[in-house]
Write a structure and sequence with these properties.
This protein is 29% helix and 12% strand. It is built from eight helices and six strands.
């Protein structure tokens, strides 16, 4: 029987066992190699030449070890130097959030009570002063602009009263409104007599009469104080004049003696203060201001306190 192999010459049937044996040896790992027929590379020349090497002994399957591929070494991550707090330099330190402790609601403390206003010293406690705002009922001197003396001195007299009361003194006013004083006990008495009746009956320890000065010389200005020469009241006049000049800054015209009705008939030490000239245009306007009136009242209050040695 004749076999045909693609690409080879005709083979004798007696060679078939040899070929089969060669195939088996190849399957078992032998040296004989049979490639794809298309490549025409069957190594049979040695076989045909009779120089075929004896087949190698078979290798037991148990002795064939599957080569183990070594695992590549793990890549070691470069370590960074750590700071004292365990944080690489140049990287922000992350602080893990901590639980907030429970907070107790803060109840605001009650506001402190306001401090009481300082009370003035009662340096004139037990003293009684009669204050006489001169004229009244639109009488008295009139300034170039038409202002009234009785209006000015009433405003100053009321301020003086309040200061004296704050100091603890008792005050008798010969008038508190713009009226001409009258005496209920003697209706026929004139306004000057009515003033003295009221002051003397009150038991006052001091009598202060308030006026504005007037002159036909419009340039005259300043403040002066009058007293009765034979009544021993010069000291009172001196103190009042000194203190009112201090607070008002007016020109100091000094002291004058006079025989005025209110000085002559007062049952207590008395003085009459001429506060500025209403006939002077500049002083007329100053007399209208509340600040100047307050300064005049403060000066007189200081003088009365100094007179009593307080």
């Amino acid at each position: 029987m004749t076999w045909r192999w693609p690409g080879l010459t005709r083979l004798n049937s007696s060679l078939i066992p040899v070929i089969v044996l060669s195939v088996l040896i190849t399957a078992l790992g032998g040296a004989l190699t049979v490639t794809h027929p298309a490549r025409h590379a069957i190594e049979l020349d040695k076989l045909f030449a009779g120089s075929l090497e004896p087949p190698a002994p078979p290798v037991e399957a148990a002795s064939v070890a599957t080569p183990v591929q070594p695992r590549p070494p793990a890549r070691k991550q470069a370590s960074l130097p750590l700071t004292s707090r365990g944080v690489p330099p140049g990287q922000p330190r992350v602080t893990p959030p901590t639980a907030e402790p429970p907070t107790t609601p803060v109840v605001p403390a009650p506001a402190p009570a306001p401090a009481p206003a300082p009370q003035p010293l009662k340096r004139l406690a037990g003293r009684h002063i009669a204050v006489d705002p001169g004229h009244g009922g639109n009488s008295g001197a009139r300034g170039p602009a038409g202002t009234q003396e009785d209006h000015n001195v009433l405003a100053i007299g009321l301020k003086l009263r309040d200061l004296l009361v704050a100091e603890g003194a008792k005050v008798t006013m010969t008038r508190t409104t713009n009226i001409t004083p009258r005496s209920p006990s003697r209706p026929s008495a004139g306004q000057l007599e009515a003033r003295m009746l009221s002051a003397n009956a009150s038991g006052a320890q001091l009598f202060i009469s308030l006026h504005n000065n007037w002159s036909s010389y419009s340039s005259w200005h300043g403040t002066a104080t009058y007293y009765q020469a034979d009544r021993g009241t010069q000291e009172l006049a001196t103190i009042l004049q000194r203190e009112i000049i201090k607070t008002t800054g007016a020109k100091d015209l000094g002291l004058f003696t006079a025989n005025f009705h209110v000085l002559r008939n007062a049952a207590m030490p008395a003085a009459l203060v001429e506060i500025s000239f209403i006939s002077n245009a500049q002083e007329e306007q100053v007399l209208l201001t509340d600040s100047y009136r307050s300064k005049a009242a403060i000066g007189l209050c200081n003088g009365i306190r100094a007179y009593f040695g307080k």
